[in-house]
Request: fold
Amino acid sequence: MAAVPTAFQVSPPPKFDFSKPEEWPKWIHCFERFRIASGLKVQSDENQVNTLIYTMGDEDVITSLNLTEEEASEYHTLKDNLEAHFVVRRNVIFERAKFNQRQQEAGETADGFIASLYALAEHCGYGALHSEMIRDRLVVGVRDKRLSEQLQMDAELTLQLWPATYYFMGNKWIFGEGFCKIIRFCFNLNLYSSIGFLTCISVYRYLAIVHPMRVMGRITVTHSVAISVVVWLLVSAQSFPDMFYPKTSANNTDRNRTEKCHHTTTTKYVEDYLKYSVGWTLTGFVIPFLILLGSYGHVTLVLCRINTIDKVVKQRSLKLMFILILLFSVCYIPFHIFKNLSLYSRVLIKHRMRPKWDKGVFCAHQISRGLVCLNSVLNPLVYLHVMDIPAQIRQMLQRSRQIFTRFFLSKYGNVPVAQSADV
Reply:
């Protein structure tokens, strides 16, 4: 296809302002367009280099690059070195200036402010101080000056521990809606998956004790993996609708000042959430609890009727059943009762009928949330208490001594070794 002759004179871009190195990408982009439109691109490197230097307006910067004569005479090599030169200056001077001047703007969400700081710090070259610089800018740049002063008093504050400030700073949430939903989802996922797996364990114990011949060799690793996947899927399906409810609300006195991260949802949707919570409690807790209670209850009856089991073993097993049911009840029943009562209280308050028991239920709900988290810690301790630990330690020491004796004999030959009375 024949080239179309140009009917106008192409002018080069204005001289480059060396006091504004951050403008280099824009200027060189304009020069590249001029280079193509004017036909300079197809000319020799010598003409391209001379035109570039003449248009820039200063030859001293070329000298400061310390290029060889061959490098300085090749257009693309010279351009790449100029690019590296101005980018370095921009990172150190301009980018750090923009980062250090950044403040949270009016109406800007916390997650937007944090994301902006991360983007600005990307080209500042802070190295090992990268996280600390972002942390300091967050502390100084938040709009809530009182919160900023309180955070400045915490000498151990890090980006990793930053979410903990929500509780230490009077429930002031500054991390945005998305992060709030993720935290609540993870909490619920952990809570109800624990309930699901404890229920599966109770059913397995029931089958192993009440119907040992029917399940012997039939429950394989594949079955266990499949059951685990089903539990995770069911719990995720129960927890996922919670993500669609709004989780944050601004302070009524100053919308740009603070936010709250709700465990459930905002007042506007609390009635719908109460219905969802009751259904969630029924499928995620009540049904598994009844299954667990039925399994351990039946196991207890079977153990009491069987006379062929050692009395000590029977007592230990019954004690374990009782403690597990008690622990499950104490940790999970109060949480679900007070959670739904707290939601019902908020519904009444929304309709201007504040109940007298509102504060008591709220405090009890906060305590029950702590009990829920303790279940994962207390369950292993139960097994340690019920099992005969001293006997197991003696058995372990005996096995270690036998292994050491075999190793000694194999290395040094048949050396008489005194036999202990219990070997």
In short: The chain has three domains: 21-97, 102-168, 181-386. Residues 181-386 form a domain with the Rhopdopsin 7-helix transmembrane proteins fold (CATH 1.20.1070.10).
